[in-house]
TrEMBL record:
Keyword field: Hydrolase, Pyridine nucleotide biosynthesis, Pyridoxal phosphate
Any single GO CC term annotated in Swiss-Prot or TrEMBL for this entry: cytoplasm
Gene3D superfamilies: Aspartate Aminotransferase, domain 1, Type I PLP-dependent aspartate aminotransferase-like (Major domain)
Domain of life: Bacteria
Species of origin: Brevundimonas vancanneytii
UniProt name for this protein: Kynureninase
UniProt GO molecular function: kynureninase activity; pyridoxal phosphate binding
Keyword Hydrolase included in the entry's annotation: yes
């Protein structure tokens, strides 16, 4: 099982060489920008022709078959559950169309985010970002290896920094003593400079 949560549409992913051996699970949340409710599963060809846990949608493609027994679909639809809210699929398709119209690929967006992360990391390490210089960078930008689109910093003051930044209209998230800053398509180099300036005011 490959968990694509932090990888799908965050970094170019080609699993074709092992597609006949693995399961891949991801969805529209986070980097796909489609919100919750649009999860998908890739299963090796031929796996689970009659899934144990499923719903009535799993036989929706074979309603015209003879009565009696459950006639599972032969495509991926055999893993469907029951009636669901399809709005997430419309959101996902809208995002994909928007990116295509603007000529934006996952690789291009990943490179843009990496550049923003690298600039912020440099600011932290060169004392441009105030008290953040005393934090431990848990996932530093190094080389060109695929990475998630956030920088995570460990420091005892992380919760206080988050609250102070929120007062300055800067959104970060905190988990215990780790504060995370996310970078993506909708941020610019100027936004990062504003972030650095805000962080410089932290004590």
């Amino acid at each position: 099982m490959v968990d694509g949560y932090h990888g799908f549409m965050a970094t170019p992913t080609d699993l074709s060489a092992v597609a006949d051996k693995i399961f891949y699970l991801a969805g529209g949340y986070k980097y796909a920008m489609a919100g919750e409710g649009a999860c998908f599963l890739h299963a090796p060809p031929g796996f689970g022709p009659r899934p144990v846990v499923t719903g009535w949608f799993a036989e929706f493609g074979h309603l015209e078959g003879p009565p009696g027994g459950v006639q599972y679909r032969t495509d991926g639809g055999r893993f469907w559950g029951a009636t669901f809210d399809a709005s997430a699929l419309y959101r996902f398709n809208a995002v994909r169309r928007m990116l295509e119209q603007h000529g934006l690929t996952t690789a291009m967006i990943a490179d843009h985010a990496r550049g923003l992360q690298a600039r912020f990391q440099t600011a932290i390490q060169s004392n441009e970002a105030g008290a953040l210089a005393g934090a431990q960078i848990l996932n530093p930008v190094e080389g060109t290896a695929p990475r998630a689109r956030f920088l995570a910093l460990r420091h005892a003051d992380a919760p206080r920094w988050k609250a102070a930044l929120q007062e300055m209209n800067v959104i970060a998230d905190v988990r215990d003593d780790v504060i995370r800053f996310g970078f993506s398509l909708y941020q610019s180099e100027d936004d990062v400079e504003k972030l650095i300036h805000a962080c410089a005011r932290l004590s």
